[in-house]
Amino acid sequence: xxxxNTYEPYQTFKKISDQWEKQVNDTIHRWTNHHEFVELMKxxxxxxxxxxxxxxxxxxxxxxxxNIPTKYDVAKAAKLTVQTEEKIDLLEEQxxxxxxxxxxxxxxxxxxxxxxxxxxxxTKQLKTDQKKLDExxxxxxxxxxxxxxxxxxxxxxGELKELMxxxxxxxxxxxxxx
Length: 178
What we know:
Blueprint: H1 9-32, H2 35-65, H3 71-177
């Protein structure tokens, strides 16, 4: 197959732009590479400086009069915005730390609440055990009283027995003596 040369406008445009850029750069370089040009630009800048100051001053006066923000005001607002965002970021970090502490505190509180529930259960158990002990104590007191009564009956029976022995001896002696 035979190769065809096609027309590419982009390549042509690129070549023309590169040549034009080179010529413009060379021209600018020739103009600015002279001492006279530098002096002229210095003089022009010095002449323009008072007018520029006056223009800025009038611009600020006009902006204040019509309540329009100046470049300085916008920069100051941007700076304050950045500072505010930084403070908000710090506050968010502090809130996250606080949330973590609150979560930890909630866990501790739930542990304490569980312990308190266990203590309440133990206290109730102790109260019921105390009631049972009181009933046992009352029963023991009754048994002790009954035992005391039985002991006093035993003593009385012992005394009666002694009396009966003495009486039997006296009866036997009187029967023997009769």
